[in-house]
Amino acid sequence: MRRARACASLRGAFCARARGQSARGPDGGAGVTAAAVVIPGNFSADLARGVVPELQLVVDGSEAIAAGPAARAVSGIVADFVSGYLAPARPGSGPEAAAEAGLGPPAVTADIRVLYNPTLESRNFFVPGILALVLMVITMLLTSIAIVKEKERGTLEQLIVSPLRPRQIILGKLLPFAGVGFLDMLLVLGVAVFGFRVVPAGSVALLLALSLLFILTTLGLGLFISTVSTTQQQAMMTAMFFVMMPMMFLSGFVFPIENMPVAVQWLTYLLPLRYYFTIIRGIFLRGVGLEVLWPQALGLLVFGAAVLAISVARFRKRLD
User: Fold this and answer.
1) Between the N and C ends of the chain, which has fewer C-beta atoms within 10 Å?
2) CB 206 within 8 A of CB 280
3) CB-based contacts of 54: which residues, under 8 Å, 6+ apart?
4) CB atoms < 10 A from the CB of 36, how many?
5) Distances (CA, A) of 52 to 78, 98, 225
6) φ, ψ for residue 289 (rounded to 5)?
7) What is the pLDDT of the chain when averaged over all its residues?
8) Do the strands 109-115 and 54-60 form a parallel or antiparallel pair, or are they unpaired?
């Protein structure tokens, strides 16, 4: 298989040997492998006899945008390899002879198996992403605009001179929006399940728990935006152009992160929506648990705690 590895490396693909196939798929449901080729034990013997072997192509259907190109790329690599291997073994069957005879390369019989999204329906890919976007927009915009509106009307100054402590004021501002965000999460989840028939394959309790982490992160971002904005229009523009649009385009919702420049790929680690997209699609489509999603959950926790701490510190300084 050294020639197969070399052929794959020429296309920019990665080839590795798996000791066993997991029940969840070639990568155990982690979502790091777009496609894999399952090679039978009689592969070498069939090639030696000049027989085109049967192969199985396993495709990760949870990434609907990349699944089709990945399947075509891997199929092309395998076809080129088998064609190049069989042509020298048959006298007068090289590429020139095949071209003169009007024959193409030998067909490779591949059993294509699509995991997690067998029909490759786009709604199974986009509906969980839209759920995350709606949750981010509602919580972030509500928090930032509501606090800035109070600054414009002067009611925030009335709270400052009241007997309330700064932490009580901050909790009073964040907890209602956290509740609204959680109710919004339940509403959108119901629309996804009963309206679009996109049912989570994994634990709903884990989805709700990790969604709370994301809500705390977006609340922190909304609070931070309110500390740097003086008007509602400024808060809305700041949230839309400097936070939401970069997250939407660089988090993997519109474009696969693997297709972005390396520098931009590193930049996406600073976006909490990247972690939440991986979490929500992992639970909805792959049905994985915390044993697979813990890196994303940890990244979301660290980012959310840092943003919330910075935002609370800035807001507390203003109150003091």
Assistant:
1) C
2) no
3) 40, 109, 110, 111
4) 22
5) 11, 16, 62
6) -115, -165
7) 78
8) parallel
Distance in angstroms (rounded) separating the CA atoms of residues 191 and 194: 5
Residue with tokens 């927009």: 137
Structural contact between residues 274 and 281, judged by C-beta atoms closer than 8 angstroms = no
Q: What is the pLDDT of residue 23?
A: 39
Residues 206-243 as b/e (b if ≥16 CB within 10 A, e otherwise) read: bbeebbebbbbbbbbbbbbbbbebeebeebbebbeeeb
Compute the distance between CA of residue 104 and CA of residue 102 in angstroms, rounded to an integer: 7
Question: Tens digits of per-residue pLDDT, 237-269?
Answer: 999 888 888 898 898 888 888 888 999 999 999
Q: Cα separations (Å) of 295 from 7, 213, 274, 302?
A: 33, 13, 12, 11
Q: Which residue, 318, 137, 151, is CA-closest to 243?
A: 137
Residue 112 backbone dihedrals phi, psi, to 5 degrees: -85, 125
| Residue that the structure tokens 């109070």 belong to | 150
174/178 Cα distance (integer angstroms):
6
Sequence-distant (6+) residues with CB within 8 A of 152 are 231, 232
Amino acid identity, position 55: L
Q: Where are the beta strands (DSSP E) in 159-260?
A: none
The H or E element spanning position 35 is strand 35-38
pTM: 0.74
For the chain, the structural domain boundaries read 2-115, 122-319
Number of H helices, E strands in the chain: 13, 3
- Which 3 state secondary structure label does DSSP give 261? coil
